[in-house]
Amino acid sequence: MSKFNVPTREEVSSNNQAIFDNLEKAVGFVPNLYATYAHSENALANYLALSSAKTSLTAKQKEVVNLAVSQVNECSYCLAAHTAIGKMNGFSDSEILELRAGKASFDHKLDALAGFAKNVTENRGAADEAVVQKFLNAGWTKENLVDTIVLVGDKTISNYLHKTTDVPVDFPVAAPLEAVEA
């Protein structure tokens, strides 16, 4: 059972109602986690601005980071959402599982990205020098490194919000990684 309710459109501020309307038009529904941000007058708009900000990473590369970070942080909501979004970005089920584990045997550059995202998350920002070097040697730039760290922060915010509120997951549930790896 959820620790927090998922606010309805009628229960949020007029500013958040407008954002709900835009999400409804763009996505077809208001995801429960986004609705949960609307318990705050400003958090939903602030989070959406951060998550949609310009970056040197493509949408597909962002999903690599989102999957690795959400796995480290064990966020069932974000794993479910980003598994669905990862599929929309062209990743297969097996590739998504690899990305969640912080690797990508199917693409050496994405392997370095997934490994870096996993390592920086596990080490709370203190990435191992060898992992940073592998990232840079794979052709990523210092700009990409900075943008990846910003994305790790972005995804960690959502991971923490879900783990604290435990609102219902409204995406198809992602399989537990250990069940697949066993």
From TrEMBL:
Q: Does the keyword Oxidoreductase apply?
A: yes
GO MF annotation terms: peroxidase activity
Q: Which segments does the entry list as coiled coil?
A: none
Domain Carboxymuconolactone decarboxylase-like residue range list: 44-106
Keywords of this entry:
Oxidoreductase, Peroxidase
Q: Where are the transmembrane segments?
A: none
UniProt-listed Pfam families = CMD
Keyword Oxidoreductase among UniProt keywords: yes
In its UniProt entry, what is this protein called?
Answer: Uncharacterized peroxidase-related enzyme
